[in-house]
Specification:
The chain is an alpha+beta fold. It is built from eight helices and eleven strands. The strands form two sheets. Strands 1, 3, 4, 6, 9 and 11 form a six-stranded antiparallel β-sheet that branches. Helix 1 (about 1-15) runs antiparallel to helix 3 and helix 1 packs parallel to helix 4 (about 55-75).
């Protein structure tokens, strides 16, 4: 009964599309494969130890967990999620790592191992388990840092922010020391070197709940002496990939540094047939259409703002 329950839970969790609109969120969900199946394997050992010796129990647990991993990945072909060989390898890493550590601390197993075999098994188990857990810790820390930085969405100063932005198209992203005229002299700013392509820019995965704020603003300038038409697009978790199902606005980015501000009321009313969900924002995209490949845009200090009682 316990084994059947574990099997059902594992398969159902693979069929359910867990909400995760940001890259770090999706990576965290994927990273949970390894420790999740590791815990399934250890639970199976405890179950099988009730009726079998240690060697038989560990072999059965290994085979059960591996079978569940294969079945759960195969089951995703009929669900909303995609089967992935990489997920299966993560499952295997977690299973082997957790079982190795469990066997190393199992008194009956230790009696059958030499000191060298015990040391090797424990070392491999710890390394595999830590490797399996590091992606969980890494992506989890990005999401925590993103939440605690509110109302600031991005400053491009801290290493954790590498987990919330990525290039659109072939654009090259790099952080730079701000120029003398920049209003915020501390830290670094983002330089977007646009590529020769239809769409080129930056995608940012912001903290999703903007419901308590009235506007979003950011500092920007053109770094090549030219004025550039840059589009900003913001979409929520319900976005269906159509132009009319998101907020779109064209901005003139000039060589002189300026702060650009957009009222969230404009986002709320940007979709004709439904209200934009400002509590479930998924992405901010800054991009140029038909870039000729040598433009550079500087951006910094993307933040949400509240209006004071006097309207400022």
């Amino acid at each position: 009964m316990i084994a059947a329950s574990i099997s059902v839970i594992a398969i159902v969790l693979h069929l359910v599309d867990i909400p995760a609109t940001s890259l770090a969120g999706r990576s965290l969900v994927d990273a949970l494969h390894a420790p999740g199946f590791g815990l399934i394997a250890v639970s199976a050992v405890l179950l099988f130890r009730m009726t079998a010796g240690p060697r038989t129990a560990y072999v059965r647990a290994l085979l059960l967990a591996l079978a569940l991993a294969v079945i759960s990945e195969a089951a995703q072909y009929v669900g909303p999620r995609d089967a992935d060989v990489a997920d299966l390898l993560w499952d295997l890493l977690g299973i082997c790592g957790f079982l190795a550590v469990a066997a190393s601390v199992d008194e009956q197993c230790r009696r059958e191992l030499s000191l060298a075999a015990f040391t090797l098994l424990l070392s491999l188990g710890i390394v595999a388990s830590l490797w399996a857990l590091q992606a969980v810790v890494s992506n989890g820390s990005v999401l925590i840092a993103r939440a605690t930085s509110m109302p600031v969405l991005a400053t491009f100063d801290d290493s954790w922010e590498l987990g919330i932005y990525r290039p659109l198209g072939e654009a090259e992203l790099s952080t730079k020391i701000p120029p003398e005229e920049w209003p915020i002299r501390s830290g670094t700013i983002m330089a977007i070197d646009l590529a020769l392509s239809r769409y080129s820019g930056i995608i940012i995965d912001p903290y999703p709940d903007w419901s308590e704020y009235q506007s979003i603003s950011f500092v920007a300038a053109s770094a090549d002496g030219e004025v550039h038409e840059i589009w900003i697009r913001v979409h929520d978790a319900e976005h269906n990939s159509h132009w009319e199902d998101r907020y779109n606005k064209k901005l003139q980015i000039r060589p002189s540094v300026a702060r650009y501000e957009i009222e969230l009321s404009d986002l709320r009313s940007s979709i004709e047939y439904r209200e934009f969900e400002v509590s479930r924002v998924a992405n901010i995209v800054l991009y140029k259409v038909d870039s000729i490949g040598h433009e550079r845009i500087l951006i910094d200090d993307i933040r949400l703002n509240r209006k004071t009682t006097d309207g400022t």
